[in-house]
Design goal:
By secondary structure, this protein is mainly beta. The chain is built from six helices and 27 strands. Helix content is 13%, strand content 39%. The strands form five sheets. Strands 1, 19, 20, 23, 24, 25 and 26 form a seven-stranded antiparallel β-sheet that branches. A six-stranded antiparallel β-barrel has the order 12-13-14-17-16-15.
Length: 380
């Protein structure tokens, strides 16, 4: 399948701005100067003891003091790779059993992972599970509880644009660093490295996130984890005020499966398409510019079995060509669909493999309800 356009749960189109996954690559054992550092790129649930919830907001100083012991530095080694022999990232303690959450791209392909706690103690870690589709991973250390201070998982669905947040991690290998900012946006889509799919429901923040911050917590002012810092959007490779974090509700859904099974199975529909913008709406003579038009249906997919239809013709208007004839999705389980992100967020938040989902579609001017059964997402 071509990796362009959107695939539900899909991929995001190409952009001139570069998404950089904030992970430090180490070309040698020594980390001496910045010259060696490159940038490449339904309730919250915790296990074991967690920090008690606070009703009032903390100061930034209080937030750091409450959280610093829970954030770790992760060093990985990749033996046998000529271009990527290791790297540094961040993580945070999830429970008293020694599970630590980080980004999948921090530990992917690693032969060895070493965790360093605030007091400098270092321990080898076992990679328990990874989910590259959401860039979440779980590693585990076998360590005494005195070093394990789990952070409390918050409810990312309660976040509001403008809310103050803080990011703690190890930017450029500098341990115990904190930056602060606000939630700049919600419900973003970002592409994942090495897959044809995108991560939905992502938090945007202007809290400075730099190489080495990958896997560290994004915290609200109660000291609760509301996201995992994962990437920045930049045209230069440096932080430009746009950082991204995987929301805590996604983490709370994915992590228990990673601990139990080492993987998480994502639900899949099996279509590609594009959002209805004003130009396409005009070409199709639609009253409103909203919805998602199906361009292709993957053979044998849930969409194919349910009878969804892809584009059949191309219209030419004003010297431009527009797809036509495909079903236009305007609702999912009776929730309005304005664009692809609405479908992907619903899949991520509400659905699992084996669930049914009802799509409201426009086909040749008629409104239809089409029910499909979701299956496991393939590794495209």
């Amino acid at each position: 399948m071509a990796k362009s356009g959107f695939v539900v749960g899909g991929i995001v189109g190409a952009t001139a701005i570069i998404l950089l996954f904030t992970f430090i690559i180490i070309p040698s054992q020594e980390i001496g100067t910045s010259d060696l550092i490159t940038s490449n790129g339904h309730d919250a649930t915790t296990l074991g003891d967690v920090l008690s919830s606070s009703k009032s907001n903390l100061t930034l100083i209080g937030l750091f003091e409450k959280s610093e012991e829970s954030v770790v530095k992760i060093k990985v080694e990749r033996i046998g790779s000529a271009t990527d022999t290791g790297g540094l990232g961040s993580g945070f303690v999830y429970d008293n059993l020694g599970h630590i959450i980080t980004n999948a791209h921090v530990v992917d392909g690693a032969n060895k992972a070493t965790v360093t706690f605030l007091d400098g103690s270092q321990y080898n870690a076992e990679i328990i599970g990874e989910d590259k589709f959401t860039d979440i991973a779980v590693i585990k250390v076998s360590e005494k509880p005195r070093l394990l201070h789990p952070l409390q998982m918050g409810d990312s669905s309660l976040l509001q644009v403008g809310e103050q947040v803080a990011a703690i991690g190890n930017p450029f290998g500098l341990s115990g660093s904190m930056t602060s900012g606000i939630v700049s946006g919600m419900g973003r889509l970002i592409a994942t490295p090495d897959t044809a799919f995108s991560i939905p429901d992502v938090i945007q923040t202007d809290a400075a996130i730099n190489p080495g911050n990958s896997g560290g917590p994004l915290l609200n002012m109660k000291g609760q984890v509301i996201g995992i810092n994962t990437a920045i959007q930049s045209g230069t490779g440096e932080f430009a005020g746009v950082g991204f974090a995987i929301p805590s509700n996604t983490v709370s859904k994915i992590v228990p499966a990673l601990i139990e099974d080492g993987k998480y199975t994502h639900p899949w529909i099996g279509i590609t398409g594009q959002d209805i913008d004003p130009d396409l709406a005009q070409a199709l003579q639609l009253k409103q510019a909203k919805g998602f038009m199906i361009i292709t249906v993957v053979d044998g997919s849930p969409a194919d079995k349910a009878g969804l239809k892809g584009r059949t013709i191309t219209l030419e208007t004003g010297g431009k060509e527009y797809p036509a004839g495909g079903d236009i999705i305007i609702s999912v389980d009776d929730k309005e669909v304005r664009k692809i992100s609405d479908i992907l967020i619903h899949l991520q938040r509400e659905k699992s493999v084996g669930d049914t989902m009802v799509l409201g579609v426009l086909r040749d001017g008629e409104f239809l309800h089409i029910t499909l059964e979701l299956v496991e997402r393939p590794d495209l």
